[in-house]
Amino acid sequence: MNVLVTDPIADAGLDVLRDAGHEVETGYELEGEALLEAVSNANGLIVRSGTEVTEEVLDANDDLVIVGRAGIGVDNIDIDAATDHGVIVANAPEGNVRAAAEHTVAMTFAAARSIPQAHIRLKDGEWAKSEYLGAELDGKTLGVVGLGRVGQEVAKKLDSLGMDIVAFDPYISEERADRLGAELVEFNDCLERADFLTIHTPLTPETEGMIGEAELDLLDGGYVINVGRGGIIQEDALAAKVEDGTLAGAALDVFAEEPLPAESPLLEHDDVIVTPHLGASTEAAQENVATSTAEQVNAALSEEPVANALNAPSIDESAFPRVEPYIEIAETAGKVAAQLLDGRIETVEVTYEGEITDEDIEFVTASALKGVFEPLEWQVNAVNAPQIAEDRGVDVTESKTHQAADFQSLISVTVGNDEDEISVDGTLFAGDDPRIVRVDGYRVDAIPHGKMVVTRNTDEPGVIGLIGSVMGKHGVNIAGMFNAREAHGSEALTVYNVDSQVPDAAKDELNEDGRIIGVDYITLNGQN
Ligand SMILES: NC(=O)c1ccc[n+]([C@@H]2O[C@H](COP(=O)([O-])OP(=O)(O)OC[C@H]3O[C@@H](n4cnc5c(N)ncnc54)[C@H](O)[C@@H]3O)[C@@H](O)[C@H]2O)c1
Ligand SMILES: O=C(O)[C@H](O)COP(=O)(O)O
């Protein structure tokens, strides 16, 4: 398969892709049509923060399976559009945390001691010793906005250097903050108490521009450090507050627009020190994120679970071999049920019985939904199936019963609407042999494969013979069948495996016979 890499990643990551047999194309700084053209051939795309993965980019290729982000921030990727397109988005949330935290500490010291400014003066031949009187960190208060992975690492490091830590993060518990020796406080309190304020939230609609003039006023006399994301602090306000002396200084690694334009007001003042988004730029971090992302791209391209998928259900790698066969049976049950129901699908119920209930079944349910919608949608997979259900207003329920009646594990997919409801149950015989064991309440033992026909008829002599001869007349070979009935002389349901499509004329001929209640042709591989 083809993997396109549009921002530089470590060679170790490229090797992981090539070792898996993929063709790897690197195209850095691709934009516009050139980017779309390159993406149009790719099954996997790997980016860092330098590539905007927009809806247009995702539109460029129906065969794109995954966008891997070799790093943490995914604000440059339209995840909703990726989900709609059935494209997995995965990042590498661990690999550069230490690098980002160390860069934050370095920037904090650099700001407090004016290291870059003094360095430039000295390089220019000036011994400006008397002009720089710095601030010590020990005994000062660090305000952390966003106490996630990087924020926590920064808090730990600066706590050990004698700083008091206050933090604002509405999504973490006080216990967690306590364990880090950080005091969780309200936003304004955090700003008022901080001598140094460090930003570690993602860029979201909620955080965008959250620190403006009024907030910077609360920091009076303090420093701002941002190794998180540009756009969280309003840059004009920041430049003005350094200029008018409200702030002692700022140290920034990230900017609303990158590369930072030369005319940015942030470049006008000596007390704003800047680095060009270097937080993750250490050898170790780049190797970590490149290999982790490449491994996830490999997994996605082999239809295996993706460890850090952000928009798709993920399964623990060790559980995957146990869950994998159920993924297929759930999808099959969904496909069969959807094709047997007349009319619009309004509800889908996926129920689990027995040992499978011990597993993480999120992906299995998503696969059942994939099966349900596949006959109707042009591009559906376990990534976008739950979204498709939501968009179509289909009510999805999932339930589990640990006790199993007849099988070690059973998955039942029921689709319904106002008029009707159809259930299809599937299981695995001997652990890996998929079977459909109940259709619409009839106990069967059908091998789900390729093309199938489900007939409902009165249970009387000669009906199976009639079906066989009509199929034969229309050139349809019956490869196998399983017949089930409610009671002698009542109604029967038969599942046939057939070798070719059943023409409408054959169905019409069967339906003309008063003993036939219904004939449904079902395809499991999407081809008629
Ligand atoms: N400069 C760099 O090179 C570099 C390197 C690594 C990470 N980063 C960036 O640093 C940021 C943090 O990364 P992380 O791995 O710690 O992420 P994370 O998801 O582990 O932590 C983010 C934290 O922010 C909190 N948060 C979310 N919304 C908030 C809000 N409105 N107010 C306060 N807190 C809020 C979350 O609860 C979470 O605890 C990300 O934006 C990431 O992209 C930058
Ligand atoms: O979010 C991240 O991981 C960092 O901002 C690093 O971004 P980069 O990979 O573009 O350096």
Rg is: 30 Å
CATH superfamily of the largest domain: D-3-phosphoglycerate dehydrogenase, domain 3
Task: List ligands, each type once.
Answer: nicotinamide-adenine-dinucleotide, 3-phosphoglyceric acid
Which percent range describes the beta-strand content?
15-25%
Number of separate strands: 22
What is the general shape?
A: elongated
Number of helices: 17
What's the CATH topology name of the largest domain?
60s Ribosomal Protein L30, Chain: A
Question: What helical percentage do the residues reach?
Answer: 25-40%
How much is the average pLDDT?
94
How many distinct domains? Answer: 3
Largest sheet: 7 strands, parallel
Give the strand order of the largest sheet, numbering strands 1, 2, ... along the chain. 8-7-6-9-10-11-12
Structural class: alpha/beta
* C-alpha termini separation: 27 Å
* Broad CATH class of the largest domain: Alpha Beta
pLDDT < 50 stretches: none
**CATH architecture descriptor of the largest domain:** 2-Layer Sandwich
EC number: 1.1.1.95
Keywords: Amino-acid biosynthesis, NAD, Oxidoreductase, Serine biosynthesis
GO molecular function: NAD binding; phosphoglycerate dehydrogenase activity
Domain D-isomer specific 2-hydroxyacid dehydrogenase NAD-binding: 105-279
